[in-house]
Amino acid sequence: MAFSNRFSSVFRHGISQNNIGNAPIPITSMLNSVRCLSTKLFVGGLSWGTDDQSLKDAFSSFGDVTEARVITDRDTGRSRGFGFVSFSNEESASSAMNAMDGQVLQGRNVRVSFANERAPGPPRGGGFGGGYRDDGGYGGGYGGNTGFGGSS
Q1: pLDDT in tens, 34-79
Q2: CA 127, CA 144: separation in Å to the nearest integer?
Q3: For residues 115 and 44, is the Cβ–Cβ distance under 8 A?
Q4: For residues 146 and 137, what is the distance between their CA atoms, to the nearest angstrom?
Q5: Of 15, 110, 126, 130, which has the most beta carbons under 10 Å away?
Q6: E strands within 1-147?
Q7: Quick check: helix, strand or coil at residue 108?
Q8: Which pLDDT value is given to residue 95?
Q9: How many whole angstroms separate alpha carbon 108 and alpha carbon 45?
Q10: What is the percent of the chain with per-residue pLDDT over 70, rounded to a whole number?
């Protein structure tokens, strides 16, 4: 709710500022304004040894870190080399992004940018699973299964 209120405020402000003489509204400047409202940063290029706590420690000097999370592989538990850091306010997030982007963290140059929210939609899954079919068999695998007899 707070995000939508801020978005509306930025949108109205952008229209009032840019609608002088019915000039077109530059959409890129409005999107950059909205992006700056984010408090969540994407951190890429992390060392395999970076964990949640060390990621939080690396960014805590820029403000109140509300969450720091290194994304891990669900099967092996090993780091996937990226993570997210959330701050309590936009200024801290912006300051951390500007200061840490391209810096060395645990021996690796990290990339820091504002995180993009996932687009709403159906849940993401592997897509290769099977299941019970109407004809009594079990489908599965890529492209479905035509059964054990080889005919459909």
Answers
A1: 444 689 999 999 999 999 999 999 999 999 999 999 999 999 999 9
A2: 10
A3: no
A4: 9
A5: 110
A6: 40-44, 65-72, 79-87, 104-105, 108-109, 111-114, 131-132, 138-139
A7: strand
A8: 96
A9: 7
A10: 56
* 60 three-state secondary structure: helix
Phi, psi of 67, deg, nearest 5? -160, 140
Helix, strand, or coil (residue 90): helix
At 18, the pLDDT band (50, 70, 90 cuts) reads very low
Q: Hey, what are 26's tokens?
A: 């530059």
Single out the residue of 83, 75, 11 nearest to residue 40, CA to CA.
Answer: 83
Encoded tokens for 138: 């079990």
Residues 6 or more apart in contact with residue 80 via CB below 8 angstroms: 71, 72, 73
Neighbours of 86 (CB within 10 A): 18
Burial of 94 (0-12, 13-18, 19+ CB in 10 A): buried
Residue 22 has pLDDT above 80, yes or no: no
For residue 31, give Cα distances in angstroms to 11, 14, 34, 67, 101: 9, 10, 5, 25, 21
Q: What are phi and psi of 66, to 5 degrees?
A: -85, -25
